[in-house]
Amino acid sequence: EARLRAPEAVAELRGLLDAAGRARTAERFAQASVDLLRGADGDPAALAARVGLASRPAAYYGLLAELVGSAPPPRPHPRPPDGRGAGHG
User: Region (Disordered) spans which residues (predicted)?
Assistant: First the structure.
């Protein structure tokens, strides 16, 4: 019976691995490992800053741009699926 279920199990495993690849699970686990090895920061202000940056990055980068006296770099315009920029056709 186990041999009969093996192809189904392999197909399910392939699907799970594909989904994990699309979700960048390996990279996320690697970053979590680094974060855990780094240890906790004992400074409450540093911890609050890290949480703030993680939850509101645009606000933090905007404030940083104000502090250094420059505007953030312009965002690139998304390209259509054919890979050509706007105005080509």
Answer: 68-89
Global pTM? 0.33
Q: Where are the domains of the chain?
A: 1-39, 40-71
Helix (H), strand (E), coil (C) string for the chain: CHHHHHHHHHHHHHHHHHHHHHCCHHHHHHHHHHHHHHCCCCCHHHHHHHHHHHHCHHHHHHHHHHHHCCCCCCCCCCCCCCCCCCCCC
pLDDT per position as a tens digit, 14-30: 998 888 888 888 888 88
CA gyration radius, the chain: 22
